[in-house]
Amino acid sequence: xxxxxxxREKPEAVKEGIAKKNADxxxxxxxxxxxxxWRAKTKIIDELKGEQNLVSDELAKEQKADLISKAQLLKQxxxxxxxxxxxxxxxxxxxxxxxxxxxxxxxxxxxxxSENKVLREVGKKPEFSFKPLDYLxxxxxxxIIDTKKAAEVAGSRFGYxxxxxxxxxxxxxxxxxxxxxxxxxxxxxxxxMIRGEVYMGMGALSAKDKxxxxxxxxxxxxxxGSAEHTLGPLHLNDVIAEEELPKRYVGFSACFRREAGSYGxxxxxxxxxxxxxxVEMFSFSKPENSESEHQKLLxxxxxxxxxxxxxxxxxxxxxxxxxWVGARQYDIETWMPGxxxxxxxxxxxxxxxxxxxxxxxxxxxxxxxKEFVHTLxxxxxxxxxxxxxxxxxxQTQQGTIRVPKALQAYVGKEEIGS
Length: 418
Description:
Blueprint: H1 4-9, H2 11-20, H3 26-61, H4 65-96, E1 117-122, H5 135-142, E2 145-146, H6 147-154, E3 160-161, H7 164-182, E4 186-188, E5 193-195, H8 196-201, E6 214-216, E7 221-223, H9 228-231, E8 239-241, E9 247-256, E10 275-285, H10 290-308, E11 312-316, E12 328-336, E13 341-350, H11 354-359, E14 362-364, E15 370-372, E16 374-382, H12 383-393, E17 401-402, H13 405-411, E18 415-416
Parallel strand pairs: 4-9, 8-14
Antiparallel strand pairs: 1-11, 2-3, 5-7, 6-7, 9-10, 10-16, 11-12, 12-13, 13-16, 14-15, 17-18
Helix pairs in contact: 2-3, 3-4, 5-12, 7-13
């Protein structure tokens, strides 16, 4: 959630920021009206409590009927106004949940993904002496991807990984974990389910995101959309010592998404599915260091891509295409020769103190003051999409797949299907 004081002190800046993310700037005025009422009620309660203390002091000296009556009336009045204030606070807090994070001022303004900015292209696209196949044709031919049987079992947007595709998956997990542990990340296998109030605190149940979530009403739990959602709450209600920051985690989890907003897009195959595995980075940072930490996380993403020798480009995401919680976001898009296109494989976001406020994650400065941390997240490998990139970029004319050098020791072979 946003800092209430930011909305109070810089309402026009907040209006401008949330409008860039396609949220209604009128939310600010509605919020401030409720906040003004809340503050007025608070002032009255404080004044009445002050009067109540004076009456209590008088009663301590002498039990007079008129003082007893006045004390009872004050108690009733305070209770009534506190109830009114609580109702206002509930409405105000509900409204606050409709505010996205405010993007940094220098984030490119734009309405959708068409206005994202290419920062750089890295690596050489492979050249083939034959027409490259897409990953699904390759996977089905090699017997390592089966979406037809998965559709019979679970419906559309599911897939089975079989044989060497499974070895490739765990090779990617091993590569990511070993690489990032050397960089000081703590490995985590987090819960795949989360309580609603914690999910809300992570900013993942906004009106924009809620349709994406799978909810289990009997258990009052949600399935997570990314390890990020339960890595952040590792420090729910915690106060981290300043010297421990940045505190970095790398988590492996299943991810569950309805793909509610992707009707008709990538309905075949495993690129856009309801369930997939991912290795995710998550960092807790001091506020003044979060922008440099963001660049470091992006650097770790790129280092892993260079290990796989896959051609990619780095995109700075415009305000209209950013995630709800992000103040700045980069994506990596990997070249897919079978599709003759770049496709998104990684995301990397600085969420500033937006999530930290929702989960009450703070750090203690050296002078003893408690401040909210900044949180950041970044994809190490979204397994399915990385497998797609490997299949398409490393295919041979014979229909086999060369295993990237960085994965050969884990997979135990140099080529799949030979």
